[in-house]
Amino acid sequence: MATTMFHFGIIIFTCLTLCVDFATTQGRYYVVDSKPEQRTNAGTKFVFALSENYSLRHNATLVITNKSPLDTRVNITYNRKNIIENLAIPMGKHKTVYLPNDVVLKKTDGITVQNGIAVISDNDVIVQVYNDVHHRSMDGFLALPTHALGTEYYIITYSPWIQSQFALVATEDDTEIYFTPAQPYQFARRTIVPAGSRIKLTANQFEAIQLQCPECDFSGARINSNKPIAVISGNRCASVPEDIQSCDHLVEQLPPVNQWGKTFIAAPLMGRPQASGNRFRILAARYGTEIGVGADSVSLKPGEYHDFQLAANETTLVVSNKPILTAQFCSGFEADNITGDPAMTLVPSLEQRVNEATFVTYNKTKEQTEVTNFITVHADCTDFEDILLDGRQMTSIPDVEFTTVELTDYCIGSIEVARKGMHSIIGDTNTTMFSAILYGFAYYNSFAHPIAMGLKDTLCRSPLPGISDIVEHDCEQQLITVQLPCMEVPNETLIECDYTECVKPVYVIAIAVGCVLVAIMIETLIRTKLMVRENYVDKHFYTPRELYHRKAVVRKQHRDSNQVMTLYNK
Predict the structure, then answer these.
(1) Domain locations in the chain as residue ranges
(2) Residue 417 pLDDT level (bands cut at 50, 70, 90)
(3) What is the pTM of this model?
């Protein structure tokens, strides 16, 4: 009986708590949020690493462009103290620097720290990095300045022919890094780490750690740290697709999750018009990510990715309800027997468009074969009249091929860049925005990377006034809706407190009484069930009279047993 009453009390308490909480938490606060700071890939401090290539035969290449209106000095170091070069770059000019091949990361157990590279300048510069230490295996990436680095990343790469890999570079001392693989991984060449387990790594400023996996694809692995880090992802040498021979080095520097976008244009690469240049991978970082790829849709969880391929000369829009990362891959030479090889580039999101960009073409491979350079620009169709390539309207350049993205107001413009050297793309008005990719093809060689990237925060975390909680939200969101107790006093930083959905106290009492009645009904039902269960013996139900006689028989058997035991003891 006591147990039943205890259960009854628990039921009433739970029902009252739920009902009263529901009735008194319908108030909503609306919090104003400021817009994120506008940032691009131009900066004064960069840290990165050169991952291992197919083999090590040549020096790697840096192209540094002075973006400031002043002459600037640039210092390039590795391992914090070893100076590679100290140079001056005049205003509006660029210089090419060849890095000694001992700065390229070597095969590692994932524990040993190696040399990170730092580029530090007096004024804003742009850094293009090319890992071309093998004459027929190369790729490049656009270096991201340290002011845009973060503490949460997801790896995006491709299935390996030799090794899937990524490198982590610390920007500060005592950096703790946690790596969570998306599939089982043999860490330090001996320990099998299950998917979802965390590996802790440590590094000091400008130190680099490289992790490699010959059997697995690192895509979907999560990286988080206590201090900002640089993450360089790719493959030592990958065949794209996996059944096509002639592998090539793949590499990109990844933006942190808080800079991912929701809208992308998937378009072919000029110069390889067939499906060989139209392979894409989309990666999610949050639960409930719903993505539309043209007329198709896909749902992804954190660390999950979706691959798709477009037909020749097909374009499509990729739209998501939550931030995603998108990469594009170029196939190997044997895919279409057209000059080129595998390459990887990030597809800049339309949320991270820029108003101006400067880039330098990559003209000759290390075996001195000519490289044909191309650019593809993504923008609103009406904006192309105001986009200038080297001072000329793109719409007035006969060689530009324009394509409208189906069922949208977006267009792409692609052109072969015949003139070698430095070029500019500029929006003629402050509201003219675009994104663009630079890529090049040579005999058994390719490279691809964004020309410029906006690096503003798109995913923000804001503390709420008067509450200890932190809410994650779209950075462009001006108002944040949060449910709070109805009796909460509005904070002066809040622009509105809506009590229209709150329940009046008299109704709260009525709801509470109703909850008690419901609890009594539930308790009565439970007690009835228990009584029926007590009357259930040997899988048969008994009437009260049958149950009385059965209990009498049991008592008689018990007395007879006691009498037998008494005679035996005598």
Answers:
(1) 43-460, 535-570
(2) very high
(3) 0.81
